[in-house]
Amino acid sequence: MYRSTNPYRPIRTEVLEVLVETPTIKTLRLKPAEPIAFETGQFIELTVPGAGEAPFTPSSQPAEQEIMEVSVMRVGRVTERIHRLRQGDEVGLRGPFGQGYPLADFRDQELLVVGGGCGFAPLRSLMYELFRRSGEFKKLLFRGGCKNPQDFLYRREIEGWADRGDLDMVLTVDQGNGDWKGRVGMVTTILDNLAMEPARGIAVVCGPPVMMKYATRKLLELGFQAERIYLSMEKNMSCGIGKCGHCRIGTYYACKDGPVFRYDRISGVPNLWD
Ligand SMILES: Cc1cc2nc3c(=O)[nH]c(=O)nc-3n(C[C@H](O)[C@H](O)[C@H](O)COP(=O)(O)OP(=O)(O)OC[C@H]3O[C@@H](n4cnc5c(N)ncnc54)[C@H](O)[C@@H]3O)c2cc1C
Ligand code: FES
Fold first, then answer.
1. For 209, how many CA atoms within 13 A lie in the half-sphere containing its CB?
2. Which residue's CA is minimally distant from atom 19 of ligand 1?
3. CA distance 88 to 106
4. Average pLDDT in the 60-67 region?
5. Fewer CB atoms inside 10 Å of the end CB: C or N, the chain?
């Protein structure tokens, strides 16, 4: 099948369905005119005609190349227009771009995935892939947190993972309500007493910058090695392909060298979490 080699040229993409996830997040089911193979953790650029372009990380199963899902939080101009899209509308899609999770390095390891807020979008794609490869890892732990139950992205689906025999999962919210049966407190409060050996384990962290900052600090305190902590860094982007310099993190470009980074590679960057 013909595949565009011009990274600036968006592929015509149909909106198959729009799912309302939370008061501020919608998931689009997209059908690109050409199948798109991506690695979990890579990102795409979505163009809304007349509004502009913005980067998003697919939240769907990487093995599914015909249909891609992206979950979009409404924060500004482009995402506002994305939230107004309806079934049958057309958008443009470029990518995938950047470096995803190094799944080969996760093999035979004890693996901890820590997520918060909108970070569940990229992590859902990662978890689908980890579940598909279930048995390749010594242990798989998931620790997820959110501000409140209403804002818990994919809540019912993620709660359903509790029934899996291959996953050790704890969920928390900062503020509970009558409907919430899980833990209450920041995500850092559910990182104690992990059934794994931190010094030899691998941790993946994805969420809002403040959550990643404190979760990473806590993981280091627990004994995780900086070179075995992987972070998904969302910096402002433009070209998406290492040309414009908008997404610089120290000597790296988040779009080309990331968005997934090993913490030891970027830990010395001033104002890393801004
Ligand atoms: C690699 C990567 C993956 C991402 N994946 C997702 C995802 O799966 N789901 C999701 O909801 N969001 C994701 N984002 C964030 C998303 O790209 C921004 O929310 C979006 O670009 C904002 O565009 P806007 O025009 O609506 O906002 P604007 O009107 O431009 O600005 C509103 C706010 O968003 C911030 N912002 C603007 N542009 C960007 C940008 N390019 N990147 C980050 N923050 C920005 C601004 O600082 C401002 O605070 C990702 C960002 C990156 C870099
Ligand atoms: S977005 Fe242009 S260099 Fe990264």
1. 8
2. 75
3. 39
4. 94
5. N
pLDDT tens digits, one per residue of 167-217: 999 999 999 888 898 899 999 999 999 999 999 999 999 999 999 999 999
Q: Using CA atoms, how far apart are residues 195 and 117, in angstroms rounded to an integer?
A: 24
Nearest to 134 by CA among 160, 172, 164, 156: 164
Q: Name the residue among 265, 247, 185, 250 with its Cα closest to residue 218.
A: 185
Which amino acid is located at 192 in the chain? D
Euclidean distance between CA atoms 47 and 69, whole angstroms? 15
pLDDT tens digits, one per residue of 211-259? 999 999 999 999 999 999 999 998 888 888 888 889 999 999 999 999 9
Averaged pLDDT, 17-22 = 96
The Å distance, Cα 191 to ligand 2 centre, comes to 34
Say whether pTM exceeds 0.90: yes
Mean pLDDT of 118-135: 95
Expressed in angstroms and rounded, the spacing between residue 194 Cα and the centre of ligand 2 is 37
How many other CB atoms sit within 10 Å of the CB of residue 164?
Answer: 14
Q: Is the dihedral of CA 254, 169, 187, 116 positive or negative?
A: positive
CA gap 232, 187 in Å, rounded = 17
Task: Verify whether ligand 1 is closer than 6 Å to residue 75 (CB atom).
Answer: yes
Instruction: Collect contacts of 167-172 with beta carbons under 8 A, ≥24 apart.
Output: 167/131, 167/140, 167/141, 167/142, 168/139, 168/140, 168/141, 168/142, 168/195, 169/141, 169/142, 169/143, 169/144, 170/142, 170/143, 170/144, 171/143, 171/144, 171/145, 171/146, 172/143, 172/144, 172/145, 172/146
